[in-house]
Amino acid sequence: MTLIKSISGIRGTIGGTPGEALTPIDIVKFTYSYCVKMKERLQKPEGERYKVVVGKDARLSGEMVEQLVCGTLISCGVDVVNAGFASTPTTEMAVIFEKADGGIILTASHNPKQWNALKLLNEKGEFLNAKEGQEILDCAENAAFNFSEVDELGTIEHKDFTDKHIDAVLELPAVDVEAIRKAGFTVALDAINSVGGIIMPRLFERLGVKCVKVHCEPTGNFAHNPEPLPKNLVDLSEAVVKNHADLGVSVDPDVDRLALIQETGEPFGEEYTLVSVAEYLLSREDGKGKELTTASNLSSSRALRDVTEAHGGKYFNAAVGEVNVTTKMKECGALIGGEGNGGVIYPALHYGRDAIVGAALFLTNLAYKKMKVSELRKTYPEYCITKNRIELSDKGLIDKILNTIKEEYKNEDINTIDGVKISFESRKEWVHLRKSNTEPIIRVYAEASTMEAADKLAHEIIAVADRIMAEK
Description:
Layout: E1 4-6, E2 9-13, H1 24-42, E3 50-56, H2 62-75, E4 78-85, H3 88-98, E5 102-106, E6 115-121, H4 130-141, E7 156-158, H5 162-170, H6 177-183, E8 186-190, H7 196-206, E9 210-214, H8 234-242, E10 247-251, E11 258-261, H9 271-285, E12 293-297, H10 303-310, E13 314-318, H11 322-332, E14 336-339, E15 343-345, H12 355-369, H13 373-377, E16 384-391, H14 398-408, E17 413-415, E18 420-424, E19 429-435, E20 441-448, H15 451-471
Parallel strand pairs: 3-4, 3-5, 4-7, 8-9, 8-10, 12-13, 12-14
Antiparallel strand pairs: 1-2, 2-6, 5-6, 10-11, 14-15, 16-20, 17-18, 18-19, 19-20
Helix pairs in contact: 1-2, 1-4, 6-12, 9-10, 9-12, 14-15
């Protein structure tokens, strides 16, 4: 597997040859380059110390990667606050709590256990922007190591930020702890044997929610494919029904994505995690004289736009990628935003996808509505998304295919900020084409009111690409 380098960090499989896997050499090189560019960006007065927070999920390679990262930071004269087992949003919050100069999260998110990654944060606890990320990539390509003298080495201290993160969530005005306690909920939790098994049960305990644990030991031996998709959540669905739970909650290994299961054992739909939380917050703020805005990426469900406009608000979209969504949210002053993969970003807490705050907000809404989860799901606009791909015989055809599709559908609403998205407003349908940066493929996402209609739209677009490839 090729080592993947992007503006948000570096990731790859553990074990293998340089250039094809994430090796100790890569880890040291990129951590060093992160330090160099952090110091250049912040330019503290001489003698003033730099501080970086490091947190990791529970995957098997975590301790090895942690030792390399922390050792490199110390050798660069940077003080380390080691958060140990910590979710991605907890590490982001820890940067804020510590007034640190940055953070490094050791997680490959939803990737299988053989993967690991370095995700890089700035002094706000947010992912680096494109320019900052590219500078680190360029620096790593030509790293000329210049480590600190022995008297200038950094220090390391260990801190657990789990409870402090939960405190911050429960102090939010939009989270009604008392209402949740009175509701007497039972929740089944699948934490994929990672750090969600630490923070989520503590959250539920503080909320007075009974928690039925499924795969909650943070061993790093993932019990199933860690992406929180319905096909991977069979055990959770069974636990919800068996224990007569009100709700099933699934998080990915670093707890920045939240997927829900209805009391029937059926999926709530990860696209609808954000929709449901947003509708609650919009209804809470509606009528207060504020301009209500929301944002998500181009591949997320139209349902967020629908519920936003139903409350008199305005919806904005952004290119795919968390940093792109948060940038758009800041521009438009969004009340809530995120991504359709279960990523909830609530600026009142911080600008990062956070399953902890997402779960607390969802439970508050459920307590207020006094409905079953299946009843709540029926109150939202119904859409279905299909995800396909176009396998290219020649990567050089990508631009020709995208340009041809733009031309053939020029009378529709076209958005080109990230590939090509065509919206068919009269039918409330859309299709989004994005080229992969690592493979000779074009990803095709389509949404309509039924799965049949979404499939039909996707294959209509794929047929155009097939025609172009056949003409070559």
